[in-house]
C-alpha cells in the first residue's frame, strides 16, 4: 500500500494492476482446483462396477467384427455408461484434469486394465461430475466411455462449491479494497470541499493517482485563493469600519457644540446609531466571535444575566430577570455577554417589556430573551439569522444595525456547541433562546 | 490652586482641537502634541498632571509611549482609541494606563473620566500605592484594571459599572462605616452618565451577587448611617 502513496501511478495504471492481480488470482485458483481433481476418489463399489463394466465391454467389442463394433458399443451403453468405439483416439478436452487416484482404484480391482492404457478425465468440473476416458483394444483401436454421476455423488460437492466460491469472494474483497484505496484521496477532497467556509483553510494532502493529485493541487490552489480573497475583503471592511470612527469622533464632538436644542440631540442619536452599526460590523468580522479567545472561564451565568438586566433597567428600560440566583458554568464570557447584549438590545428595539429567563436542566442550560414586540413570523425566522438580514422594509428601517446581531448570537451559541432558536415569547413577541450543553 | 495641566497627544487635528477646547471650557489647562517627539518636547518643557494618549499615532503606538513613560513617571494616562475591543482595553490598562476611552466619545464622558482619574490619583498617593491593581477580601478578588470580580471558588462574577465602583468605594474604606451620602458622591465620580439608582438598590444587588449558598455577602447595614464592608482588604 505504501507503494501507492509514494509513487503516483495513473488511475489507468492502478486499474490495470487491479485487473492483472484479479486474473492472476483467478488462474491460480483454477490451477489449484484442477490439481486437486487428480486427487478425487470414488467409493470402492463404484470403482469395481466401473472396472468390471469396462473390462467386459472391451472384451465384447474386441470380439465383434469391426463393422459391428459401433452397434455393439451402443448396445452396451446404459443410462449410466456411455460407450463409443473409435478407430483412433481423439484428443481429450484441453482443460480436463486427469483423475489419477480413481485410475489407480480401477486398476487395483482389474489389473488387466493396466495393459489397456486406461485414461480417465474429469469432465466439466463443478457440474455433473462426469468421468470420461478411453481404453485401448488389442488392435489399437479405442473405446471411449463416459460414466455419469460418479463424482457428483461423492461428498465433494460442498467442498468444491466452497473452493470455487472462496477465491471469487476473496477476489472481490481484494479488488474492492484496492479500489477503495485508490478512491480515498477523492473522498478527502469531497470532505474538504464540504468544509469550505465552515472552518479554516486546510490543504488536502497530496496522494493518490496522478490524475487525482492534479485535482487536489488545483483544489488547494483554489481554496487558498478563496481564503485570501475573503481575508482581504474582511480586512478591507474592518479597516473601513475602523476608519469611520475618526470622522464619527469629530462629528460627535462638533455636534455637542450645536446650540439648537433639538438638532443637537438628534444628531447625537444618529451618531450613536452609526457607532452601534460599526461595533456590530467589527464584532462580526473580528475573530474573537469565531474563535474563542482562550479557555472557557467558570462564570456565574445567573449573575451575568441579572447584571445585563440591571444595566438595562438602570438606563430606564423595563427589563426583568427570572431564574436562579446562581448558576456556574464554563463559558466564553466576553462572547456570551456580547450575545446577550445583542439579544436584549434587539428585544428593547422591538418591544417595550423584556424578560430574560434562565432555565437549568440536567444536560443543558437555556437563556431566553423575550419581548412584547411584534415578533418574527414563522417563515422568516431562518432568514433573520442570516448576516445582513433585512426582514421587510417596514422592519428594516431604523434597526440600529446592519442586521448582524442575530448572526453574531448564533455564532456565539455554536462556539459553545449550543444553538440559537427563535420562537414566541410568553410576553407575545419574539423569544430568542440560546441553549448551551452542560459540560 | 492652579487648574490641572493636561497634555493631549492626538494626530487628528480636528479631534485635537475639539477635545482641547472642550477640556478648556471645563477649566483645564491643555497643551497638545500630534506626534511622540512633540510630546517628549512638551513633557521636557513642563510636567503634565494627566496625559490623554491616542493609541494609533503615526510612527510610535500609544501603547509603546505608555510603556516608555511608565519607566520614569507615574503621571496618570488615559488612552483614546478607535480600537474599542475588550482586548485593546485590557492591554492598555495592564500596561499601566489609568483608563481607556473608546472613540467616538462625548464631552460629558471625557470630562467625567478625566475628573475621576485625577481624583483617584490625588487620593492614592504616594505613587507606590498605585501599583496595586488587585483587591482581596474574604476570598473574593477584584481586578481593578480589568474591572473583574472573582468569587472564592474562582467563578467570574459580572457586575454593572455602578456596582463595581460602589464595591471599590467600599473596599477603599474597608471596616469603616461610610455614610450613604458619601457613597453616592463616590460612586458618581466615575461616569458622567452613571446610573441614578439609589445606593440602597445597588447595595442590595451587590449583596445578592456576592452571596453564596452558605454565606452572606460581607456588607453590613449600619442603620441610619450607611454601609460597611466588614472584612479586611488586602492590596496586591
Short recap of the structure:
Chain A is α+β, with helices and mostly antiparallel strands and about 450 residues long. Chain A is about 55% helix and about 15% strand. Chain B contains 8 helices and 13 strands.
List the helices and strands and how they pair.
The complex is a heterodimer of chains A (439) and B (236).
Chain A: H1 2-6, H2 11-37, H3 44-63, H4 69-76, E1 81-86, H5 100-109, E2 119-123, E3 130-136, E4 142-147, H6 157-195, H7 210-255, H8 263-285, H9 287-290, E5 297-300, H10 301-314, E6 318-322, E7 328-331, H11 333-350, E8 353-360, E9 364-371, H12 381-384, H13 393-396, H14 405-415, E10 419-424, E11 430-437
Parallel strand pairs in A: 6-8
Antiparallel strand pairs in A: 1-4, 2-3, 3-4, 5-7, 8-9, 9-11, 10-11
Chain B: E1 5-9, H1 13-25, E2 29-33, H2 36-45, E3 50-54, H3 62-72, E4 77-81, H4 86-94, E5 99-102, H5 107-123, E6 134-137, E7 140-143, E8 148-150, E9 156-157, H6 161-172, E10 178-179, H7 180-188, H8 199-209, E11 219-222, E12 226-229, E13 234-235
Parallel strand pairs in B: 1-2, 1-3, 3-4, 4-5
Antiparallel strand pairs in B: 6-7, 6-13, 7-8, 8-9, 10-12, 11-12
Helix pairs in contact in B: 6-7, 6-8
